[in-house]
Specification:
This protein has about 290 residues and is mostly helical. About 80% of the residues lie in helices and about 0% in strands. Helix 5 runs parallel beside helix 13 and helix 6 packs across helix 8. The longest helix has 28 residues.
Length: about 290
């Protein structure tokens, strides 16, 4: 097994920070759209504008798109990603930004559970204890919910579960070209969300089109950064840096959406972050 060099790890960290900034910007635009537009329709527009961004790269090297190895893994990644993105867009419009980010901190714990259930990995008791601590942090963050709808909380948990699966598959696809990865991802999003979006379609004005174009372009660039980050550095290095997004999302929620940071959300975020750090620390030692 090969491990990333120090230079590769630094590069992966840099790409991850770019992904965090771009992703936070795209989510802010989605949150600004409110709950009037169905999440599947937002994802469809995101995919459509994303494909326009990718078109020059696709035309420049069509061979990278047509010659596909391990198509099953690509399809699995697209399926997980479609569920994660649609559920995430649905949730972020219905709950405070800081709480949305806090619940996303559960991803390392979910990855651990998936490894135990699917890969049959032996998980030490200390790591299960850390997972229990993380669940306690969720309970603290959700009591009270801080204005979050029950549907929004359920959706973000679904997003975390599906997103964790997408991360695992993305790591398995290391070596595939970036154009191929992003083309499959973006075209797959459009194909899978189109039927649902047509059924739930609402009219879109010119101003909303511009917002959706921003979501598509920014999210597509974030996807490139995400792929490069997870190819260059290990998940155990990248995951703890994700906790920086809580500070940024809390600031955006307060500044743009007048969402006060509640003590339960802050306390829950600290507890979940500590739990995830303990899990990652244990994994690194092993």
């Amino acid at each position: 097994m090969t491990y990333p060099t120090r230079a590769e790890t630094r590069g992966g960290v840099g790409w991850l920070l770019c992904d965090m900034v771009l992703n936070l910007t795209a989510l802010s635009l989605v949150k600004g759209l409110g709950t009037d537009m169905p999440a599947a329709q937002v994802v469809l527009f995101r995919a459509g504008f994303g494909l326009l961004i990718l078109l020059p790269w696709i035309l420049q090297d069509t061979g990278q798109v047509t010659r596909v190895a391990r198509p099953g893994l690509h399809l699995l990644r697209v399926g997980f990603s479609t569920i994660a993105l649609t559920a995430g867009f649905f949730a972020v419009a219905r709950m405070p930004f800081a709480l949305f980010t806090t619940l996303n901190f559960l991803r390392p714990l979910v990855l651990m559970c998936l490894a135990a259930l699917i890969l049959r990995e032996a998980i030490p008791r200390a790591r299960w204890a850390a997972a229990a601590l993380g669940l306690a942090g969720v309970a603290v963050a959700l009591a009270p919910t801080g204005g979050a709808e029950v549907a929004g909380v359920g959706a973000v948990l679904i997003s975390v579960l599906a997103g964790s699966g997408a991360v695992i598959v993305t790591r398995r696809l290391r070596g595939a070209s970036e154009v191929q990865m992003m083309t499959f991802y973006t075209a797959g999003l459009a194909f899978l969300t189109l039927p649902v979006a047509v059924i739930q379609w609402v009219p879109v004005d010119a101003g909303t089109i511009l917002l959706l174009a921003g979501v598509g372009c920014i999210a597509q660039l974030a996807q490139l950064c995400f792929i490069r980050a997870h190819w260059m550095a290990e998940a155990g290095v990248l995951a703890p840096l994700g906790y920086l997004s809580f500070i940024a999302s809390a600031a955006v929620g307060f500044t743009l959406f007048s969402e006060p940071l509640t003590l339960p959300t802050l306390t829950g975020a600290v507890v979940i972050a500590l739990s995830s750090w303990l899990v990652l620390r244990s994994s690194a030692r092993k």
